[in-house]
């Protein structure tokens, strides 16, 4: 089974940004995430949607 949820660190690697910036995007509502207990995870689909939005804004 493919991974469906990523940590903030993994999202940062994918987007080539810092972990702190990932949390800023989450708290600003620009990047969807879920909480599992005390852990915050980002669905792979949310990362893909974020990228689509950024490309759309750049166009």
What can you see in these coordinates?
This is Helix-turn-helix domain-containing protein. The chain has 59 residues and is an alpha+beta fold. It has one domain (5-58). It contains 3 helices and 3 strands; from the N terminus they run βααββα. A 3-stranded antiparallel β-sheet has the order 1-3-2. Helix 1 (8-15) crosses helix 2. It is globular and about 40 Å long. It starts with a strand and ends with a helix.
How much of the sequence is in beta strands?
15-25%
From the N-terminal CA to the C-terminal CA, the straight-line distance is 35 Å
Mean pLDDT: 96
How do the strands of the widest beta sheet line up side by side?
Answer: 1-3-2
Q: Over the alpha carbons, how many angstroms does the gyration radius reach?
A: 11 Å
Overall geometric form: globular
Main sheet makeup:
3 strands, antiparallel
Number of strands: 3
Number of domain modules: 1
Secondary structure class reads alpha+beta
Total helix count? 3
Reading the helices and strands in chain order gives: EHHEEH
In the predicted model, the low-confidence regions spanning at least 5 consecutive residues are: none
Notable characteristics:
59 residues, alpha+beta, three-stranded antiparallel sheet, globular
